[in-house]
Write a structure and sequence with these properties.
Length: 303
């Protein structure tokens, strides 16, 4: 593969620009106090739904909200959501606001359960379907491969739960400009791991690598990795931990000859680093993650 420090082909120009803008968009989201107030209040029992990337961010939000004592919070893929469980509200997360499964789910809840949409496209049909719309048009994207909308929505969620994001934003700025290790760009395989709220980040990192560079990637809760998946760890492969690793895991991975990758960055900022590796791998292969194979900006199903 190509050295990531040398000039690369122009493919993925939108992804590159949108990826680099994340410190700015996170700061904007952290300051949206009126929009954060539209999200479910502490104590409410809620579900958060989305598809693909949005589902993974829903998982992270749900874990953070429960861990913070804010109320019971479930996360579902919109196509597999169990929302008739007496929830006080359902949060629908979607960049495009046109995804068929999300629209159908929200339509079915109208007049029965409060719905809140967190949406990138302010002109999308979902805006008029939900009871309350939290709009993030400044984080919308042209690249098919999402980067900033997902993390900006999560920044909004984290700020709404009372987190100070100054450290995460500073870490993201560092992640955007740090030199990439060529060994990561050249690696044969990646397994991403997380604990608690970072499990969603691990799933999202794996998805980005598959979408952008057609790479072999997997993702698991960290404590599950030794229950089978560690069998694929080997020299030339990477096991990437988001956040603090379980005791002994780094040594177990090292014993396989695989690289154990971790960081002291805020885990959301470490996801930015993983996005950069995905982009570099795509460019090294001559791929364009702005228009990846078999994918489009939104999944709209024919009736």
């Amino acid at each position: 593969m190509t050295d990531p420090t040398t000039p690369q082909p122009a493919g993925g120009a939108h992804m590159a620009a949108e990826l680099a803008s994340q410190p700015e968009t996170w700061a904007r989201a952290a300051g949206l106090r009126a929009e954060q107030a539209l999200l479910p209040a502490a104590g409410a029992r809620i579900a958060v739904v989305g598809c693909g990337t949005s589902w993974f961010m829903a998982q992270s939000y749900a874990a953070l909200r429960e861990r913070g004592g804010q109320g019971e919070t479930d996360a579902f893929a919109a196509s597999e959501a169990f929302v008739d469980r007496g929830y006080d509200a359902v949060v629908a997360l979607t960049r495009s606001g046109t995804t068929t499964e999300v629209l159908e789910l929200v339509e079915g809840l109208r007049g029965r359960v409060r719905t809140i949409g967190v949406i990138g496209d302010a002109d999308s049909p979902l805006v008029s379907l939900v009871d309350d719309a939290v709009l993030l048009p400044f984080a919308d994207e042209q690249s098919v491969v999402q980067t900033r909308f997902a993390t900006t929505a999560l920044a909004l969620f984290r700020a709404s739960l009372g987190e100070d994001l100054d450290g995460a934003i500073a870490d993201a700025s560092a992640a955007v400009s740090a030199e990439l290790d060529p060994a990561l760009v050249d690696a044969e395989q990646f397994s991403y791991l997380g604990r608690g709220w970072t499990v969603g980040l691990a799933h999202e990192a794996a998805l980005k690598m598959r979408e952008a560079s057609q790479s072999w990637t997997e993702s698991y809760p960290s404590m599950e990795y030794r229950h089978g998946p560690i069998a694929i760890a080997a020299p030339g492969r990477v096991t990437w931990q988001f956040g603090t690793a379980p005791e002994g895991l780094a040594a177990d991975v090292a014993a396989t000859g695989a690289r154990f990758e971790t960081s002291t960055l805020d885990p959301m900022a470490d996801l930015v680093r993983a996005q950069r590796v995905a982009l570099a791998r795509a460019r090294a292969k001559g791929l364009d993650p702005d228009s990846p194979r078999n994918l489009s900006r939104s999944v709209i199903l024919n009736p």
